[in-house]
Specification:
- The chain is built from 16 helices and 21 strands.
- The chain is α/β, with parallel strands linked by helices.
- The chain folds into three domains: 109 residues, CBS-domain, CATH 3.10.580.10; 234 residues, 3-Layer(aba) Sandwich (Aspartate Aminotransferase, domain 2), CATH 3.40.640; 126 residues, Aspartate Aminotransferase, domain 1, CATH 3.90.1150.10.
- An eight-stranded mixed sheet has the order 7-15-14-11-10-8-9-20, sandwiched between helices. A four-stranded antiparallel sheet has the order 16-18-21-19. Strands 1-2-3 form a three-stranded mixed sheet.
- It binds pyridoxal-5'-phosphate.
- Pyridoxal-5'-phosphate binds next to helix 7.
Length: 488
C-alpha cells in the first residue's frame, strides 16, 4: 500500500513537477485530484510522455490532460475483488475511494496478490539428489533401490519392523483391509471425523462401515462410543471384522483404551496415521499401534512424495502379502501366472527418492508446524474466541493443521470466517465433514458415547488454518490480524 499524499497532484502542476513526483514516488503513477479533493484520474509516465510527444512543454500544466475514466474500488473491497478488478482491466494499481470520492489508499498488485494456502509441499535439499540418482542409474519405475531404502528408513524412524511403499495412503488402507480379511458382508468400525479415504476402502471390499464419534478431549475416536458400538454389536450377535482408528490433524487417538477394547473383542486395528507421521502417543511413534499402520505422502501432508503411501506392520507376513498384492499378485512362476486378484499399487523409485529426502526433514517440519500453531495460539489468545484442538498430556501432535472450534460468542461463525478469509486470499477450511453426515454414507450406523454428537459440533464450529511449514512470518501475521478482525 502506498502513501496517498505523496501521489496527489492537481491540474495546476506542471509536467516537470509531475515527472519529478513520479520519480520520487517510484510507482509509475500519480493521483490527479480536483479542487474539491475527489479523484479526477490517474497520471502515468505514459500519459506525460504522450503530452510531450504532442508538443506540450515541460512548464505547461496537467490541465492539458484529457478526461479519463479511471478504475477504482470502494473502501473495504476485499483483496479478491480488488485483484479481480485489476486482472479484468490489466492494471497493477487500484485507488480505493471513500463516499466523498477521495482516495484513501492505492492498492498495488504486488502487495495484495499473494495467496496464503492451507498446506503446500515443502521440499528440502536432499530430494533432488535421490531423484537424480534414480535417473542416472535408470531406475525409473517401478521399484528400485530408493523404494527399498525409503521403506527401511521410514520403518527405522517410526520403529516398525516392516513397511511396503505404495501409490497412496488410500491404497495402503485398501490393502490393509484386504489383509485383515475384510470382505463382502463384513462390518468395519471407523472414526467418523475423518477424510473419506479412511472409509471408502471398506466399501471397495464390499463391507459396510459403522461410524464412531469423537471425544472432545482429543477430537479422535471416543473409547466410550467404541465400547457402546462393541457391546451393541455383541448384543445383536455380530462383531466387526476390523476397526479403523484415525489420528486426526496430526494427533494420535487415545490408543490404550481403544486397543484394550479391540483386544477384548478380538478385533484387529488398522491405524490410519495418514495425517500423524512424526506424532507420538505416550512417547511411541504414531502409526505403530495397530496390527497395520498407514501413512500418506500426498501433496498436502506433513511430508510428501507428491503422491504415495506406506503400509507398516510388525508382522512380516502381512507386509510381504501387501507387496505381492500391490504388484498385480504375480505368482512366482516363469510365465505370467495369477491365483489371486491383485492391484497396481506400488510406489515408483523416483517418488521414493523424494520420500527419502523428505524423511530427513520430517522432524524439522514437525517443529515448524508446532511453531505455526504456537504463533496462532499466542497471536489470537486475547480474543478468547477460538477453542484450539486440545493436546492431551499423552499426545505429542505434529500439528499438521492448526485447527480450532470457533466460540459461539465470535462475531461470525466458522463458515462465514472461512468465506471472508477467502476474500482476503487466505485459504482456511472447515473441519472434515463427519462420515455419518455424508450423502454417500446415508443410512449407515453411527455410535456416540452419549446423547450428543461431538463430531457434529466440531464440524459445525471447526476451522483449519493455513499451516504450511514454508509460511513466512509476514503471512502468519497477515492471517492472525485478518482473523482477529473477523472474530470480534
Ligand atoms: C490423506 C488421507 C488419507 C488418504 O491418503 P492419500 O495418500 O491421499 O490416498 C487417508 N486418511 C486420512 C485421514 C487422510 O488425511
Amino acid at each position: 500500500m502506498a502513501e496517498v499524499e505523496k501521489l496527489i497532484v492537481s491540474r495546476k502542476a506542471t509536467l516537470r513537477e509531475a515527472m519529478s513526483r513520479l520519480e520520487q514516488a517510484g510507482l509509475g503513477i500519480l493521483l490527479l485530484v480536483s479542487d474539491e479533493g475527489g479523484l479526477d484520474r490517474t497520471v502515468t509516465d505514459g500519459d506525460i510522455r504522450r503530452l510531450i510527444l504532442a508538443g506540450h512543454g515541460l512548464d505547461e500544466t496537467l490541465g492539458a490532460l484529457p478526461e479519463a475514466k479511471c478504475i477504482t474500488a470502494p473502501v473495504g473491497a476485499t483483496r479478491r475483488a480488488a485483484l479481480e478488478l485489476m486482472n479484468r482491466h490489466g492494471i497493477s494499481h487500484l485507488p480505493l475511494i471513500d463516499a466523498d470520492g477521495r482516495v484513501t489508499e492505492l492498492l498495488l498488485r504486488r502487495d495484495i496478490d499473494e495467496q496464503v494456502l492451507l498446506s503446500t509441499p515443502h521440499i528440502g535439499d536432499a530430494e533432488r539428489e535421490f531423484v537424480e540418482q534414480a535417473f542416472l542409474t535408470n531406475w525409473i519405475a517401478p521399484l528400485g533401490p530408493n523404494v527399498d531404502a525409503f521403506e527401511t528408513e521410514l520403518c527405522a524412524f517410526v520403529g516398525s519392523a516392516h513397511g511396503a511403499a505404495v501409490s497412496s495412503g488410500t491404497a495402503a488402507i485398501h490393502l490393509g483391509l484386504r489383509l485383515l480379511g475384510v470382505g463382502p458382508g463384513d462390518r468395519v468400525f471407523c472414526s467418523t471425523l475423518t477424510f473419506a479415504a479412511s472409509a471408502n476402502p471398506i466399501v471397495y471390499q464390499g463391507a459396510e462401515p459403522v461410524f464412531i464419534d469423537s471425544e472432545a478431549s482429543s477430537w479422535n475416536m471416543c473409547p466410550r462410543a467404541l465400547e457402546r458400538a462393541f457391546s451393541t454389536a455383541a448384543s445383536e450377535g455380530w462383531r466387526p471384522k476390523a476397526v479403523i482408528v484415525v489420528n486426526l490433524y496430526g494427533q494420535s487417538a487415545d490408543m490404550d483404551p481403544i486397543l484394550d477394547l479391540c483386544a477384548a473383542y478380538g478385533v484387529p486395528v488398522l491405524e490410519d496415521a495418514a495425517e500423524s507421521l512424526g506424532a507420538t502417543y505416550k512417547g511411541r511413534q504414531s502409526g505403530t499401534f495397530g496390527r497395520i499402520g498407514v501413512f500418506s505422502f500426498n501433496g498436502n501432508k506433513i511430508i510428501t512424495t507428491s503422491g504415495g503411501g506406506m503400509l507398516v506392520s510388525d508382522d512380516e507376513e502381512i507386509v510381504a502379502r501387501a507387496r505381492f498384492l500391490a504388484t498385480q499378485a504375480r505368482d512366482p512362476a516363469p510365465h505370467y501366472q495369477h491365483s489371486e486378484i491383485g492391484y497396481n499399487y506400488r510406489m515408483s523409485n523416483i517418488l521414493a527418492g523424494v520420500g527419502r529426502g523428505q524423511l530427513r526433514v520430517l522432524e524439522s517440519r514437525v517443529a515448524t508446524r508446532r511453531g505455526v500453531f504456537e504463533r496462532y495460539r499466542e497471536g489470537l489468545a486475547d480474543t478468547g474466541l477460538l477453542e484450539w484442538m486440545p493436546e492431551p498430556d499423552w499426545s505429542f501432535s505434529n500439528r499438521w493443521l492448526t485447527t480450532a472450534a470457533v466460540s459461539p460468542d465470535a462475531a461470525f461463525g466458522s463458515g462465514e470466517i472461512i468465506r471472508r478469509l477467502a476474500g482476503e486470499l487466505i485459504e482456511a477450511r472447515p473441519v472434515w465433514k463427519p462420515m455419518h453426515l455424508q450423502p454417500v454414507f446415508a443410512g449407515t450406523r453411527y455410535f456416540t458415547a452419549g446423547n450428543s454428537s461431538v463430531s457434529d459440533d466440531l464440524f459445525e464450529r471447526g476451522i483449519c488454518l493455513p499451516s504450511g511449514s514454508n509460511m513466512s512470518e509476514e503471512q502468519l501475521d497477515r492471517v492472525i490480524s485478518t482473523l482477529k478482525s473477523l472474530l470480534r
